[in-house]
């Protein structure tokens, strides 16, 4: 077992207080957006096995079979296939969608062949992997996820009383679902000039005025995005998406092609080890509209909120349709829980104090906000701790 020393990413949208509170630290006043746990080359965790701190990525690279297990190496390769995070949003993140594995491989190969630098602002594909992800709320967590039915979005837009939206409303009401969603998204993201700025300003003003009287809270969510991006046509695209509020312990799985944006709140996030993001707006960064339209799934669907149930072992599993990550939650109040070995695991304590004990007599105590890496060849570990909540990230073999 290895205690992890983790990096905090200071993105501008991050909360100044949530991650310091989790870690028991005094806030600096600067945004702290993401706490990274894993071996991503951008900011790998560090461990110390007695010879000084080392990057977890380097430790895994030195002996992948010992750290990840022979089965995981055979299935996923010689790198940890997931990135585990605490995400703390104080301001809205950009709207985005992620490619399928085939799209990522093709897009990466194309940009490599064309000589697009990996760090180029207009580059879409940083690697050849897909990026499915799951967010589980630690406190009330608000976001936008997936397309709302076009007729419902038409009604929402009509309620704002902005004449410039009438052509979009007509498309949403007259055309088949996927065609309507594609056309409206392409239209709003391609708008430029004074007319576009005027439309967004009027929509932002209407949302702000209407939000206090909206019993659903959805308009307040869009108004929050509008306050941060008052001239971004991505605000019009945001109106196409479902508004969702997760309560603590609830989760959302976001597969390929699903447009989404996190607005505010703190959650545990896990994703396949990839940086591939196609942005849809609410950002000053590059938006590649043609590529986005190729990747997005233009199907309306209500968000499927995941609420796990405990099995006989006490594990509360969040089921996902991919194997690169498997995430569950434990609350070992009544009796110790045995965590099987044979695969790489990261454990994160989010409440109370957790105690880990290995068969060889070694142990580790995790306070709130602390995490540990369990290598595949370490064998089973016993988890206990009344009042503790522990998230477990691993893979499916």
Walk me through what this model shows.
With 397 residues, the chain is of the alpha+beta class. The strands form 5 sheets. Strands 2, 3, 6, 8, 9, 10, 11, 12 and 14 form a 9-stranded antiparallel beta sheet that branches. It has a 6-stranded antiparallel beta sheet with strand order 1-21-18-23-16-15, with no helix packed on it. It has a 4-stranded antiparallel beta sheet with strand order 17-22-19-20, with no helix packed on it. The protein starts with a strand and ends with a strand.
Class by alpha and beta content: alpha+beta
Give Rg in angstroms. Answer: 22 Å
Categorize the overall geometry.
globular
The profile of the biggest β sheet is: 9 strands, antiparallel
Secondary-structure map:
Layout: E1 2-3, E2 7-9, H1 18-23, E3 34-37, E4 46-48, E5 53-55, H2 56-62, H3 64-68, H4 70-76, E6 82-89, E7 95-97, H5 101-113, E8 133-137, E9 141-147, H6 150-159, H7 166-174, H8 177-190, H9 193-210, H10 218-228, H11 234-238, E10 241-246, E11 251-254, E12 260-272, E13 278-281, H12 289-295, E14 305-306, E15 316-318, E16 326-330, E17 337-339, E18 345-351, E19 354-358, E20 363-366, E21 371-374, E22 381-384, E23 389-394
Antiparallel strand pairs: 1-21, 2-3, 3-6, 4-5, 6-12, 7-13, 8-11, 8-12, 9-10, 9-12, 11-14, 15-16, 16-23, 17-22, 18-21, 18-23, 19-20, 19-22
Helix pairs in contact: 6-7, 7-8, 9-10
């Amino acid at each position: 077992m290895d205690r992890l020393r983790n990096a905090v990413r200071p993105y501008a949208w991050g909360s100044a207080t949530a991650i310091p509170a989790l870690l028991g630290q005094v806030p600096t006043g600067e945004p702290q957006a993401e706490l990274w746990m894993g071996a991503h080359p951008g900011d790998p965790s560090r461990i110390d096995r007695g010879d000084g701190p080392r990057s977890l990525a380097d430790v895994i690279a030195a002996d992948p079979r010992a750290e990840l297990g022979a089965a995981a190496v055979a299935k996923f390769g010689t790198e940890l296939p997931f990135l585990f995070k605490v995400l703390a949003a104080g301001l809205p993140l950009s709207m985005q969608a992620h490619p399928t594995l085939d799209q990522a491989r093709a897009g990466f190969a194309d940009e490599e062949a064309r000589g697009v630098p990996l760090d180029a602002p207009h580059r879409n594909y940083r690697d050849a992997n897909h990026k499915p992800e799951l967010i589980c709320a630690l406190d009330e967590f608000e976001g936008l996820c997936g397309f709302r039915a076009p007729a419902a979005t038409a009604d929402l837009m009509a309620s704002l009383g902005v004449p410039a939206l009438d052509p979009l409303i007509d498309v949403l009401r007259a055309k088949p679902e996927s065609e309507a969603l594609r056309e409206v998204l392409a239209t709003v993201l391609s708008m430029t000039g004074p007319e576009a700025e005027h439309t967004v300003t009027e929509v932002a003003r209407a949302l702000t005025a209407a939000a206090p009287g909206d019993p659903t809270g959805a308009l307040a969510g869009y108004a929050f995005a509008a306050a941060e991006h008052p001239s971004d046509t991505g605000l019009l695209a945001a109106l196409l998406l479902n508004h969702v509020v997760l309560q603590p312990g609830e989760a959302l799985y976001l597969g390929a092609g699903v447009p989404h944006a996190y607005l505010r709140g703190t959650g545990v996030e896990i994703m396949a080890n990839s940086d591939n993001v196609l942005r849809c707006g609410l950002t000053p960064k590059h938006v590649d509209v043609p590529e986005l339209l190729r990747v997005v799934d233009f199907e309306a669907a209500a968000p499927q909120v995941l609420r796990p149930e405990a099995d006989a072992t006490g594990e509360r599993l969040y089921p996902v349709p991919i194997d690169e990550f498997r995430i569950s939650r434990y609350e070992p109040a009544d009796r110790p829980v045995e965590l099987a070995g044979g695969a790489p695991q990261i454990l994160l304590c989010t409440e109370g104090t957790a105690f880990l004990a290995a068969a060889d007599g070694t142990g580790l105590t995790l306070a709130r906000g602390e995490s540990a890496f369990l290598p595949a060849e370490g064998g089973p570990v016993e988890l206990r701790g009344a009042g503790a909540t522990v998230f477990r990230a691993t893979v499916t073999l």
